[in-house]
């Protein structure tokens, strides 16, 4: 399946809550395959449909030896423990900051055939589930940063070579969580 271009920070689709999937058909299966292929090509740990311009509640993930997808996901926090650690985003290429997330979550949703799925995640997988679900709600991880870090992040985003460029240049990323730098 074809690798899709990843939408970059500033694209309105990234700030628009995605619609629930209502039809579990060949088109949905193709979308999940395209998301998976694009995520792997970009070197990411997860990818949500809005990041390729499709405003549907679907994401793929491949982290902590767990790989798959969730359609119409929700998650519940398990316990009170939090984690602070590096986070990046394929839609904000080459940049990353420490972000606070819940340490343990349980995600529920469906597979491409409409069968129920449940995924328990800790650490990186929990971070990925929260990050990708945020994308489906029109939220970017920079929105989760503390005020001081967010101010720094926005300055770095505005200074990035790719910011405002419709066809960014691809080069290698300094960190595997961030995928390739555009």
Structure explained in plain terms:
The active site is at 132. Its EC number is 3.5.1.88. Fe cation binds at residues 89, 131, 135. InterPro entries: Peptide_deformylase (IPR023635). A hairpin with a 2-residue loop joins strand 4 and strand 5. The longest helix has 17 residues, at 26-42. The chain is 24% helix and 30% strand. The protein has 182 residues and is of the alpha+beta class. The strands form two sheets. A five-stranded antiparallel β-sheet has the order 1-2-3-6-7, sandwiched between helices. The protein has helices spanning 26-42, 124-136, 147-159, and strands at 46-48, 58-63, 66-77, 82-89, 92-102, 104-110, 116-122. It has one domain (12-164): Peptide deformylase (Peptide Deformylase, Alpha-Beta Complex). The chain starts with 25 loop residues before the first helix and ends in a 23-residue tail after the last helix. The protein is globular and about 45 Å long.
Per-chain topology:
Elements: H1 26-42, E1 46-48, E2 58-63, E3 66-77, E4 82-89, E5 92-102, E6 104-110, E7 116-122, H2 124-136, H3 147-159
List segments where confidence is low: pLDDT < 50 over at least 5 consecutive residues.
167-182
Number of E strands: 7
Radius of gyration: 15 Å
State the name of the first-level CATH class. Answer: Alpha Beta
CATH architecture: Alpha-Beta Complex
- The mean pLDDT is 91
GO molecular function, one term: peptide deformylase activity
Catalytic activity: N-terminal N-formyl-L-methionyl-[peptide] + H2O = N-terminal L-methionyl-[peptide] + formate
EC number: 3.5.1.88
Keywords: Hydrolase, Iron, Metal-binding, Protein biosynthesis
